[in-house]
Design a protein that fits this description.
The radius of gyration is 14 Å and the shape is globular. The strands form three sheets. It has a five-stranded antiparallel β-sheet with strand order 6-2-3-4-8, with no helix packed on it. The protein has a three-stranded antiparallel β-sheet with strand order 1-7-5, with no helix packed on it. Strands 9-10 form a two-stranded antiparallel sheet. It is about 5% helix and about 40% strand. The chain contains one helix and ten strands; from the N terminus they run E-E-H-E-E-E-E-E-E-E-E. With about 120 residues, it is mostly beta strands. The protein has one domain.
């Protein structure tokens, strides 16, 4: 995301937050590969209660000086619900199970709350 994008982050699936971790770190430009491991970030894992789990990271960038996350472990979230934001330039990485069907390509422009980026196979 650039400084011209909206930086509101929404829950990628409906479920319960089973893990949350804040990691202090550097302020490397968010587009740099090493920003995913070295920058200030929040790691969030949501379990859908049917065997599906999604993890995502809110990663601060060169200009971003504040990551906001409005939830905590144990909170229930609904897909598309606002869970936080990153102020100014930033990055969000979403981690799907290997069986998920990814619906976007690298560098596709996505719209918050509208673009489906992947689908998890429903388990019985």
């Amino acid at each position: 995301m650039s400084v011209f994008d909206v930086h509101v982050n929404r829950a990628p699936i409906t479920g319960r937050i089973v893990h949350y971790r804040y990691n202090p770190g550097k302020k490397i430009a968010a587009f740099a590969e090493k920003s995913s491991s070295e920058n200030e970030q929040n790691l969030v894992v949501i379990d859908d209660g049917r065997g599906g789990r999604i993890a995502f990271k809110q990663i601060a960038g060169l200009l971003a000086r504040r990551i906001v996350f409005d939830k905590k472990e144990g909170d229930e979230v609904v897909r598309g619900e606002r869970v936080g934001m990153i102020k100014f330039g930033s990055r969000v990485d979403v981690f799907f199970p290997s069986t998920a069907a990814i619906k976007v390509d690298m560098r596709d422009k996505v719209k918050v709350g509208l673009t489906i980026i992947g689908e998890i196979e429903e388990r019985a």
